[in-house]
Specification:
YibL family ribosome-associated protein, 3 strands, elongated, coiled coil, Ribosomal Protein S8, Chain: A, domain 1, about 120 residues, 3-stranded antiparallel sheet, 2 domains
Length: about 120
Amino acid sequence: MNLKQELHELNDKLDKFRRKLAAAEQRGDQHVVAQFKQEMAALTKRIASVKQQQTRELGKQAGEVKDLPFRRAITKAEQADMGKLKKSVKGLVVVHPMTALGRQMGLTEVTGFAPKPF
């Protein structure tokens, strides 16, 4: 299971526990309330751990892409025919600024990274 799916499932469980906690508080069942609060604390800790792991992997990937020797912005015409561009440039990595990787790298425009000039 990848980190994104795991994070989604953990958030779903946390939401479910929050709803059950509210119902238990309405009933006044203190034992169940304490149990749900304990489980929610454990889930919150696990969610933070997964997010931190996700950030580390993203940073590692950003470092690998930045290490490629050549980079430049991709023009609108090249973006329109991305297949042709990728076929002509071996090892090209295109990063969009709105993706997680693009935000991590601080990009403002679609940028291509490659081992050779293109």
